[in-house]
UniProtKB/TrEMBL annotation:
GO terms for biological process: innate immune response. Keywords: Signal. InterPro entries: Glycoprotein. One of its GO terms (cellular component) is membrane raft. Residues 1-19 form the signal peptide. It comes from Caenorhabditis brenneri (Nematode worm). This is Uncharacterized protein. Pfam families: Glycoprotein.
């Protein structure tokens, strides 16, 4: 009985090994050998994805269950992109009579599923040889096998295989689509972390009350997606459509085709040169940008993913010691470009979905003409407060995205305000400008003040006066405690000239450094 149980376990282990889906590269099957393919399940489906010459394919045969097929017959693809298939029954062998020089130059592959995948009507396979319109319905898993590209650009880093996906339509937010790298595993319905594109795009954001909330944004507009992989798959749970093409368009520099949009940049262990996407901007609205990033750089490459805007930049860096898998990062930035650079042309593997998305109307539009005394702005809308006397950023406000508060007399950043990374509050304050005790800022948050007579900077951190041209108090460090008043050299300013601005006295107050 015990023996029986043990052999059952062994048996089921064997079965699960046998069931692993496989990709076999045709270039590995050499003349003069009868190659037996192991771990192939009866009932599994076999597909061929190849646009190698028909003569070469004619010389390659597979045999299963006593039947022999020529790859030239199996490689034919229907106009809808659906390939022929052979169902495995009783093992699989591959033979070729091509000379090895021909074999080494082959680009195609054989794909073998599991029996369970064959039996699942929602599991389908496309081979992209030309242009195919693809309609997906319900919960489906769709494998896409690419064939060698027919176009040849001048790009040193053009991939061998790529699908050009256009006109992706996800009709409503109740439907989602994900692109995933690799082929679906034997347990393909389990949750994986190999998504490199998703629509809707799910991310965390902060609501008006400062709470972190999950948001899923459905992009109506998607850039053409160059899926530069040999094979990949789609999981979707409703009706979606797209056009797929065996095509590649040089994209070292591209320009987004809508203000709110998303796209991908993928590198499959091939050469990589800098890529830049010029994002469109909308100065009237706040902008959220972000990425879904997985990256496994080569040992000598440092790869940077950079959003650059007029109000700052957002940089993610990966190298061989700091890989990323499925990382979602977002920030608010008036981005103008998204750039990927690598310190080495052999960058390794990365998959990056980027997006740029319009948010709320900026307060700026309503208040470019300075608002009057006592104007109060809460976060989210407080990006530019052209405040005059008494302008305040209220306690508890969270200023993400590089807000600018060019307040004049009496401008205050009230106790308890939180400045996140990269926040800059410009307070070119005149008499009476204050940064109140207890303000905090994360890494790199700075308050730049151009104070005049009697300005006070009260902070909980040391204040370093790194003054500009004409200032006589450069390098002065005052270490105020609670409630202290560090006068930024009233005498210097007051006595040098009557024009405060012309002195360009900048004092940087690093309010506090909270590393993220
Ligand atoms: C390929 O193999 C066949 C049979 O094994 C042999 O007759 C033929 O000479 C080989 N051709 C080349 C080019 O190696
Ligand atoms: C599709 O997936 C999304 C994301 O997981 C989910 O919100 C939605 O309810 C699903 N739709 C259906 C029809 O199950
Ligand atoms: C981003 O902008 C800064 C400042 O203009 C510039 O120095 C940097 O090279 C830019 N980075 C990229 C990747 O474009
Ligand atoms: C990152 O990925 C590369 C490529 O897969 C791998 O060689 C390296 O060990 C990984 N690094 C870490 C720290 O996991």
């Amino acid at each position: 009985m015990k023996f029986f149980a043990t052999s059952l376990i062994l048996f089921s282990t064997l079965v699960s090994i046998r069931a692993d889906p496989q990709i076999l590269n045709l270039r590995e099957y050499l003349n003069g050998t009868i190659a037996t393919v192991n771990n192939v399940e009866d009932g599994a489906s076999l597909y061929v994805a190849s646009n190698d010459s028909p003569d070469s394919l004619n010389n390659i045969q597979i045999t299963t269950g006593g039947n022999t097929y020529r790859l030239s017959d199996l490689a034919a693809v229907n106009p809808d992109g659906k390939p022929n298939k052979v169902v495995i029954n009783g093992g699989l062998t591959i033979t070729t009579t091509n000379p090895n020089t021909v074999t080494y130059a082959l680009s195609g592959c054989i794909y073998i599923t599991t029996a369970a995948q064959t039996n699942d009507p929602a599991f389908q396979v496309f081979v992209i040889t030309g242009s195919h319109h693809v309609d997906l319905t319900g919960f489906s898993t769709t494998v896409v096998l690419n064939t060698q590209l027919k176009v040849q650009t001048d790009d040193a880093d053009q991939p061998q295989k790529s699908t050009y996906v256009q006109n992706l339509v996800v009709p409503d937010t109740h439907i989602s689509v994900a692109f995933q790298w690799g082929i679906p595993a034997a347990n393909w319905k389990q949750i994986t972390n190999n998504q490199f594109f998703m629509n809707p795009f799910s991310f965390k954001t902060v609501d008006n009350s400062g709470n972190v909330v999950n948001q899923a944004y459905l992009f109506d507009h998607v850039e053409p997606l160059q899926v530069s992989l040999d094979y990949w798959y789609i999981t979707s749970n409703g009706s979606i459509t797209m056009d797929m093409q065996n095509n590649f368009v040089s994209d070292h520099v591209s320009t987004a085709t809508a203000v709110t949009t998303t796209g991908i940049l993928v590198n499959n262990n091939y050469l990589f040169e800098q890529h830049t996407v010029n994002l469109l901007s909308d100065p009237t609205r706040s902008r959220t940008v972000g990425t879904l990033l997985s990256a496994y750089p080569s040992s000598n490459a440092v790869v940077n993913f950079v959003f650059n805007g007029t109000d700052g930049s957002f940089v993610q860096t990966v190298d061989n010691k700091l890989n990323a898998t499925g990382e979602i990062q977002t920030t608010q930035l008036s981005t103008s470009t998204f750039t990927i650079t690598s310190t080495d042309i052999t960058a390794g593997i990365f998959y990056c979905q980027y997006f740029a998305l319009n948010g709320a109307l900026l307060a700026t539009t309503a208040s470019t003409a300075a608002p009057s005394t006592g104007n109060t702005q809460n976060t989210q809308t407080t990006v530019n407060v052209q405040g005059t006397t008494g302008s305040t950023v209220v306690a508890g406000s969270t200023l993400s995205t590089v807000p600018t508060v060019p307040g004049t007399t009496g401008s205050t950043v009230v106790a308890g305000s939180t400045l996140s990374t990269g926040s800059t509050v410009n307070v070119p304050g005149t008499t009476g400008s204050t940064v109140v005790v207890g303000s905090t800022g994360s890494s790199a948050a700075t308050v730049t003040a151009v104070p005049s007579v009697s300005s006070t900077m009260k902070t909980t951190a040391a204040t370093t006066v790194s003054a500009g041209t004409g200032s006589t108090n450069q390098g002065t460090t005052v270490s105020p405690g609670t409630g202290s008043t560090s006068l930024i050299s009233t005498t210097t300013i007051a006595t040098t000239t009557s024009s405060v601005r012309s002195l360009s006295v900048l004092s940087s107050v690093i309010i506090s450094i909270l590393m993220l």
